[in-house]
Amino acid sequence: MPRHRPRVAEGLALLRLSHVGKRFALPGQDAHFTALHDLNLEVHAGQTLAIVGESGSGKSTALRIALGLEKPSSGSVEFAGIDVTSHSWRAFRPLRRRIQLVQQNPFAALDPRFTVFDSIVEPLVAFGLLKGQALERRARELITQVQLPVQFLDRLPKELSGGQRQRVAIARALALEPEVLLLDEPVSALDVSVQAQVLALLDELQRELGMAYVLVSHDLAVVASMADQVLVLRRGQVVEQGPAVQVLSQPGSSYTRELIAAIPGYSRSVLPVAV
Ligand code: ADP
Ligand code: MG
After folding, report:
1. Rounded to an integer, what distance in angstroms lies between the CA atom of residue 119 and that of residue 125?
2. Measured in angstroms, how far is the CA atom of residue 37 from the centroid of ligand 2?
3. What is the spatial distance between Cα 195 and Cα 106, in angstroms, rounded to a whole number?
4. Residue 49 is inside which H or E element, if any?
5. Strands lying side by side in the sheet with 99-102
6. For residue 265, pLDDT beyond 80
7. Contact criterion met (CB below 8 Å) for 62 and 39
């Protein structure tokens, strides 16, 4: 049972990118580099859209556009039916509570001088939502949600393992009760042995809280275990997109087939079975 009632009408995409293009000016030249061409995607409550593709294919750029950190050069971005394409930073601010990013590197995401408590509550403080005992109570709730002991609230990042730091980064992302989590290679900086545990946590949180996930990963085994929809990017172009079962079991492009064949210890068993 989702703890929160869906705040948007059933069937309405929480996040939608329509015909999004992104060009970057090349410094000192009269030319542009096109990082994204005509990207279309949408994600719904409780669902996971995976974006896969090699390094430099435009995955993080797509997330930065979704977050309003970059403006698209063409196309539009909608959040829960609201067109935010030309929103200023200030106009975007209330929506920032509803969409949060978990980065690849939990070492970079946490301020080394901040205790776990400080890191987790920072968004709540920044938005002026809670203070005093209510803030402390919420911090205990959040650390428990990511399955760490409450005593960890007093620790510094350097006293935590990589997996524990990523759990703290996830707790921080949950603080504002977002409807959409953008996960940029959330386990690729972690030891293989803890990757599965963090993914299982993300899966559990999604079922409990009903969040939509956009999961960027180059690991097709991870994608196979979590995604409902898959979008394959190559050099900013969508090579393939559709239901995960279909894309992974009957890839339509040789590029996707190569990505699947590159799964470490590749076997058919990691892939969902087409129905
Ligand atoms: P990915 O996350 O798939 O590895 P990125 O979205 O980070 O790829 O980058 C896609 C391409 O866009 C890369 O070639 C990168 O160098 C380029 N790029 C990203 N951000 C900028 C920027 N601010 N200015 C110029 N080029 C950029
Ligand atoms: Mg990236």
Report:
1. 10
2. 16
3. 13
4. strand 48-52
5. 99-102, 180-184, 212-216, 48-52, 229-234, 237-243
6. no
7. yes
pTM for the whole structure: 0.92
Tokens of 212: 């939509």
**What pLDDT is stored for residue 2 in this prediction?**
44
What span, in angstroms and rounded, lies between the C-alpha atoms of 109 and 205? 20
> What average pLDDT does the structure give for the chain?
90
CA separation, residue 24 to residues 19, 37, 55 (Å): 17, 12, 17
Q: Which two three-digit tokens encode residue 30? A: 């009269």
Q: Are 148 and 167 within 8 A, CB to CB?
A: yes
Task: Look at residue 145 in the predicted model and tell me its pLDDT.
Answer: 98
- Mutual orientation of helices 162-174 and 192-209 as an angle, nearest 10°? 20
Q: Are 260 and 271 in contact (CB under 8 A)?
A: yes
> With bands split at pLDDT 50, 70 and 90, how would you rate the model's confidence at 267?
low
CA of 33 to the centre of ligand 1 (A): 9
256 within 8 A of 240, measured Cβ to Cβ: yes
59 CB near ligand 1 (under 6 Å): yes
HEC per residue, 111-150: CCCCCHHHHHHHHHHHCCCCCHHHHHHHHHHHHHHCCCCH
Whether pLDDT at 3 is above 70: no
For residue 143, the number of C-alpha atoms closer than 13 Å in the C-beta half-sphere is 22
Neighbouring residues of 271: CB distance < 8 A, sequence distance ≥ 6: 224, 248, 249, 260
Among 17, 33, 54, 61, name the best residue to mutate to test ligand 1's pocket (greatest count of ligand atoms within 8 A of Cβ).
Answer: 61
Report the pLDDT value the prediction gives residue 268, as an integer from 0 to 100. Answer: 53
Cβ 182 vs Cβ 198: under 8 Å = no
> Tokens for 225?
């275990």
